[in-house]
Predict the structure.
Amino acid sequence: MDVRNEHGSSLTIVLIFSVFALITTSVYIISQWTIAKPGLLAPSSFQALLNARSGIWKAMELMNAPPPDTLASINTLGTKFNDTLFGKQTQNIADSSALPPDDTTDVSIFSSDSFGKCKVIFTYIPCFKNLESNGIFRMQSKTVSARLGGILHTSPDTVCFLGTKIPPQGGGLIDGKVTQIPDSTLGGPTKSKFISEFRKQDLVKVISYYKAKFSNTNDSLFQNSVITIQDNDKIPTIKDIVNGPLLLDGSHHDLYWKEKRRILVLGDLQITGTVTVENIEFLVSGNVNLFDNCVFRNVSIFCSKTLTITDKAVFSGNALSLYQINASKRGRIENNSVLVAYNEKKDTSSSRIKVLCSIFLTQEVRCDGTVISCGNRAGIKTDKNVIIHGSLWSDSVICHEGTLLGFMRCKELISSEELDSRQTSTPPPISGKNVMKGSVRRLETIADYPYPFFMGKPSIVSWEESM
């Protein structure tokens, strides 16, 4: 018998059992690590989420920080002088240069980076501000997005704010309280403890921001011909900057476009046929026309001219027009939308007709949202078959003949006859009366309707966290 062969056989068996034991142990350790890994990473993930949340609040603090009060350091003024001129509390809401739009900013939320850090980016959405905070802790990161708007405090029992104490006449129905607009909430710089309803300087900032986008991209002297999209396969070919008019034509094939993008159109935007668009932000240098059976969901629109919603078109989202908003036929505005018309140009035409309104809700329109008209043509007109849930806010007159469930604010209520008379007479006659033929009723959920960021008290209107 060969002793060497026996030793070799034993060694082979030992090696086999050793490898088997190693594999078994490795599998057990890996399986236990896989089971325990979520629990080990959960504290880090939660800390990253907390950092992202803190970044939102810290960014809001930077954006809403009032300018330094130099008078606070002057003690030589008499008490009576302070009480009469400077004794009232002021609340100035203004963007901070520490958080410029479209730039990622490192926000310090702790005195030491050992607890993690946070990066915040602030972008404009026509009627809102969007804050996106990315919290980081060790190898984990979480994202929180917040949309900032405004709140105008009002009781559900108050259905109408007017510029004068004259009670409405004309046979209209008012189911609720009518009150006068407080002087402390009127636009412009305020020396009151109340925050102004409308801050023109903030609106001008967002308009300048979008106009800069047009000027920075309008390098070509000649615009392209109309870009027509009639097939879903062609939608991905739409560029971020369209140098000319854009037509989405769903007359032959139904079009569906869902994408989180910003599209800049150097011309008109027209939607016809059966077209569904979701989550897009459109910056349009011309008119926006929504025709036929098109549906816009969660869409943001900035247009330099007129926004038209007609036929059976459906719009939900927010829109800012620098000229006029027309909703007619069976057009629908849904889901607590926000529509703002700001006409910044004075009417210098030689025509005898001077248009007083910049928002027209006519025929059988249904509107669920906040409708705001401000600027030089700040009137709103509604027809008798129009039904509105939400708010009508005008910095001038409202000619209301429809049905409103919610809240109305204007300096004066006028009839359609007086509206026509004022638009054709020079100088326009002033009746000194508040006249309304429509109806206004209470809406218990009126507090759920947001306002743009340049109105009322800054607040968070939506909040989204990554899982």
DSSP finds four helices and 26 strands in the chain. The first strand starts at residue 104 and ends at 107. Residues 70-96, 186-194 have pLDDT under 50 and may be disordered. The two ends are 70 Å apart (CA to CA).
